[in-house]
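Async update (no meeting this week)

Hi team, since we skipped the sync, here's where things stand on the single-chain job. The sequence we agreed to prioritize is pasted below, unchanged from the tracker. I ran it this morning and attached the output directly underneath so nobody has to dig for it. Comments welcome in thread, and please keep replies under the output.
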Amino acid sequence: MKMRFFINTHKGFTILVMLGLMVWFRRWDNPTAWIYVALHGGYGLLWVAKSRLFGDRDWERPVSWPAGIGFYWGGLTLYWLGGFIVFWRDVTAPAWYLAMCVFLFMIGVFFVFGSDMQKFTTLAARPGELITTGFFRLSRNPNYFGELLIYLGFGLLAMHWLPVAVIALALATFWIPRMIKKDRSLARYPEFAAYRRRTRMLVPFVM
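Output:
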């Protein structure tokens, strides 16, 4: 089975899990809970749509069922902890905090979907090209930067350290190693050295 199957089914299933938690804990009158459902659940549906329309070829690799369930489903399930905390503890965030989380999420969606679309269309027209313009002028990994903002957007709604720890764990064990591997792969391009000097690995203008 392709890696994409496990990732897409998990992300698509997220909104049902969050609505299930809403029913279980009866948080119908909690605006923070509803915003969490909209952000995390909505992102899952958007991801599935993106995968169908302009998916990443990296997710087309075949993986075994044990790896798909244990590593991908298991790893992605850690992101549900933020939602569980929101519903379980009946977290009620102040209005300014809700606005901040939605703002982070929106900027993240812009970077993820914009950069993935740019990569998809550029490589379809000019296969094998080193992309250094647009989103990739700001960061060598604008999609990961966007994902970081997205996960912070709904993770911070829990107002608890645990979702932030999950994001930090993903950053250290999965995102950064993949970014380093990508840099090594792109080093085959003569122009990559100059491109690397003028960009940041993850956060534009910072790191």
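Quick observations from my side:
The chain has one domain: 3-198.
Residues 95-125 form the longest helix (31 residues).
Reply here if anything looks off.
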